[in-house]
Design goal:
Low-confidence stretches: none
Distance between the termini: 25 Å
Oligomer: single chain
Number of strands: 13
CATH architecture: 4-Layer Sandwich
CATH class: Alpha Beta
């Protein structure tokens, strides 16, 4: 699904274009190269690649997979995508350990299964991370500069990716923040409301146009207003609205 001239939605369980357990999976067309943001749960890789091809993406240009965090719906497909396409996998160092080891408790997958979000037989396939990214690190892809912004809260190493495109400034947020000021705080290992209070402000003042989260809808104009709602909410007395 082509969202803008350079951004494609190639996976999403919520809107039914790939496996029901998949997060929103995006591709950025950087002209000489293409970058995938997140990998889905790994249960329907064919749909991700077919959707990309049918939307006009040359999957032969896919070189990098940028993971926002290690939860199964975002990183479970990384190993198979790496195997098929030879992608270099990028993740924050704290998330990389989870992704490489695949420990269900550390990933919060055990409680997700008990809560009915995954079937009992689901297994997370560990994946080697090639590049450990740090806060404010710049990743070059096809002449574009993608900035990594570490925002712990949903998970210890949750990372957003900021990129300037002709159609506007885009922020891929994983499960950090969603439209209408909703955050991704959950009652599982690695989640931290204190992390949100301390680090979500890193997304203030970015002048984001396109807000592209890992679930729910996306925003193609005035994305910063939605982010600012969340920043204000986490500084309030009440627990902010969360996406679950």
């Amino acid at each position: 699904m082509k969202l803008t001239e350079h951004i494609f939605l190639v996976g999403s369980g919520e809107i039914g274009i790939s496996n029901e357990h998949d997060c929103n999976v995006y591709v950025i067309d950087c002209k000489r190269e293409a970058v995938m943001i997140d990998a889905g749960a790994g249960l329907d890789i064919d749909s991700l690649l077919n959707n990309a091809t049918n939307s006009g993406v040359d999957i032969g240009k896919l070189k990098k997979l940028l993971l926002t965090h290690g939860h199964a719906d975002h990183a479970g497909g990384a190993a198979e995508l790496k195997r098929r396409l030879g992608l270099s996998v990028y993740a924050n160092r704290r998330e990389a350990k989870l992704i490489e080891e695949g420990d269900e408790r550390a990933l919060g997958l055990d409680i997700a299964k008990r809560s009915g979000l995954y079937f009992p037989e689901y297994r997370f396939t560990p994946c080697k991370v090639d590049v450990f990214i740090t806060h404010n690190q710049k990743i070059i892809a096809g002449g574009l500069e993608i900035r990594a912004i570490n925002v712990p809260g949903n998970s210890p190493g949750s990372t957003c990716y900021l990129v300037d495109l002709p159609e506007g400034r885009a922020l891929f947020t994983g499960d950090v923040v969603f439209p209408h000021g909703v955050i991704g705080f959950m009652n599982c290992k690695g989640a931290s409301l204190a992390g949100y209070r301390r680090f979500l402000r890193r997304l203030s003042g970015l002048e984001v146009d396109l807000l592209l989260p890992g679930h729910r809808g996306f925003v193609l104009k005035r994305g910063q207003a939605h982010i600012d709602q969340a920043v204000e909410a986490v500084s309030d007395l009440h627990v902010p609205k969360s996406f679950l």
